[in-house]
Amino acid sequence: MRKSVVAIVGRPNVGKSTIFNRLVGERISIVEDTPGVTRDRIYAEAEWLTTTFNLIDTGGIDVGDEPLLVQMRQQAEVAIDEADVIIFLLNGREGITAADEEVAKLLYKSNKPVVIGVNKMDNPEMRQEIYEFYSLGFGEPFPISGSHGLGLGDLLDEVVGYFPKEEEAEMPDDTIYFSLIGRPNVGKSSLVNSMLHEDRVIVSEMEGTTRDAVDTHLRKDDQDFVIIDTAGMRKRGKVYETTEKYSVLRALKAIERSDVVLVLLDAETGIREQDKKIAGYAHDAGRAVIIVVNKWDTIDSGDKTMKEFEKKVRAHFQFLDYAPIVFLSAKTQKRLHTLIPAIRTASENHAKRIQTNVLNDVIMDALAMNPTPTVKGRRLKVLYATQVAVKPPSFVVFVNDPDLMHFTYKRFLENRIRDAFGFIGTPIKIFARRRQ
Ligand code: GDP
Ligand code: GDP
Questions:
Q1: Whole-prediction pTM
Q2: pLDDT tens across 386-398, in order?
Q3: Which of 190, 265, 338 to mutate to test the pocket of ligand 2 (most atoms within 8 A of CB)?
Q4: 294 lines ligand 2 (CB under 6 A)
Q5: Do 310 and 402 fall into the same domain?
């Protein structure tokens, strides 16, 4: 299920990143008195009561040397494009400025729900200042204080109230959602195009099945697939779409809705530092991952070159040791037929459930093969294990003392589980928990 997205807009220094940090619950972006400081992160998960949603700090989408007003307009456009609900933040101590009115004009035209947050209302006496903000025409303004954490509950109640109700027809559960990520020009759009023209692939515009018009539905060999954010790969020509922060934001949004993420590399240019960063997003999100080496037509290939390239990939992406590598050419369609089967396998493994008794047979064999370590004279005792979640498969191992479960032993158990059940393409998680 896709999480709702909330964007914070407003002119510099009204407190966007302060509020972002409050709501996300960690200090992940830099707050400074200088307007327009660079932010570390602009997209993160937040939670209110029982609802989780994704939050964008549009202030972090910085388009270089553009005049302030142009930047603000672009940030508002990002919010309008990406968000389900927009928090329009103002400074209660300064009232409505000309810049605020500019932003308001864009938001009027957007048809997206807008909630007004009047920030820097640090004490209750200031609350009478908020009446002026009714004149913006977005309904009730909510007095808040980002630095003191005041009023955020009422603001969020209002925001959450606008989230779309999940009543639309959903795709059947066995649909595989996947996305393609990679730096510009690795061939994402070309690969989507080639896949859509593959033999026996049926592309359908299934109406009303999703809110995201940017998705593409396809079917092959009785399996439904959705390619997420296909339109995000087309260059639509808006200025902010070329900024790195914005591409990261799009990628994170797409990854989050995916079962399987294809990390594209370019055989022609080789592996770059940026590839690693991008691949890291997929891994961190716990999605199934396939590494796709595209443009294989540009390489004079024999089995040896493939092995050599594979070695390089493995060295660069050690954290993705579970990801299969598919070599292909979007252009000539060479080896393209290997991709969909790889996606199916990775997706099945990502959702795989292992019966507790079968799992414990494997764990007991592992214990017999490699006895548990002792730490300061105390031996780790493993009692039993059980799978507690899928997507990705997650296991709890009950032990006498979790502190005795070292990384290396956990890694050993993970490898035994992988050997036994073949979780190719998916990360798996193992947690140690105390049981007397
Ligand atoms: P942004 O440019 O809109 O992201 O604004 P920042 O979050 O960087 O905040 C700008 C300045 O306003 C910083 O010095 C913050 O400490 C300050 N600030 C943010 N929220 C509040 C608040 O609720 N009360 C007060 N007094 N200052 C705040
Ligand atoms: P994107 O930015 O990741 O969506 O990349 P594009 O799909 O726009 O491709 C970038 C460039 O690489 C274009 O000039 C494509 O024609 C070219 N390209 C894409 N796939 C291949 C391939 O498999 N082989 C070769 N030789 N070129 C490719």
A1: 0.80
A2: 999 999 999 999 9
A3: 190
A4: yes
A5: no
